[in-house]
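Researcher: Sequence recovery benchmark, item below. Answer with residues only.
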């Protein structure tokens, strides 16, 4: 069991290194934001996709579901 745990931990280290390498190759600067590391940065980029498809920051915030304003008609 200990050997399996060591193997999995080693695989995780390799995966984290690969994620960091891919972020650097694609020139992503998201990990420069305080509190966002390589793993979280990769998750955010994977969820958002191409950020240039959003015309403004408020549209990105609304897409992420972080906009607390409620717009209703009627």
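Model:
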């Amino acid at each position: 069991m200990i050997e399996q745990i060591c193997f999995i931990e080693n695989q995780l280290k390799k995966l984290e290194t690969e994620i960091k390498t891919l972020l650097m190759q694609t020139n992503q600067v998201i990990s420069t934001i305080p509190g966002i590391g390589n793993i979280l940065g990769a998750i955010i980029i994977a969820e958002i996709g191409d950020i240039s498809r959003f015309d403004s920051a408020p549209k990105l915030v609304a897409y992420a579901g972080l906009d607390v304003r409620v717009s209703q008609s009627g």
